[in-house]
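Contributing: when you submit paired examples, paste them exactly as shown. First protein:
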Amino acid sequence: MSEDHDRAEPFTDDELAFLRHVRFGSLPARVRPEDLVETEEADRSREEPQEPMVPREWG
């Protein structure tokens, strides 16, 4: 059985680029270094955990 969509020659680079764009779309804009922020590790809270909530009784 032969199928109509078989190709005798491989895709060109332009065709592959188009197919990638159709399948995945475009990449989001690059994040600029000045838009990045530094993070600091914070100490964990020393508070006691709250008592667990009592589940409602469904009648």
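Second protein:
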Amino acid sequence: MWGGDGVGASQFVTEILPRVAKTFDFNRFGYDSFTADESTVNAFVYAGLSGQEDVTRLAETWTVQDGRLTSLRVFYYDPLLVINAVRRREALSA
């Protein structure tokens, strides 16, 4: 999928964000909670999956240093749901 260690904003913008935009339906996006301090943001969010009725939940931890995002970790409540959505989308575009 799109996990692992990435390097730099450019890679995130060119490789990760396009995949995320194709997989999730952000018209069906919302959040349960956001908490933050000087260096960490924790978010519990949900998003629809593109082309299907399913909605998935995610937990995200962002680390911020000098006003810039230095790491982003995403944890899927039901990773198989997201993996299958990515596989379906890739099969349709093949």
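If you have annotations for the second protein, write them as plain sentences, like these:
The radius of gyration is 14 Å.
The chain has one domain: 26-93.
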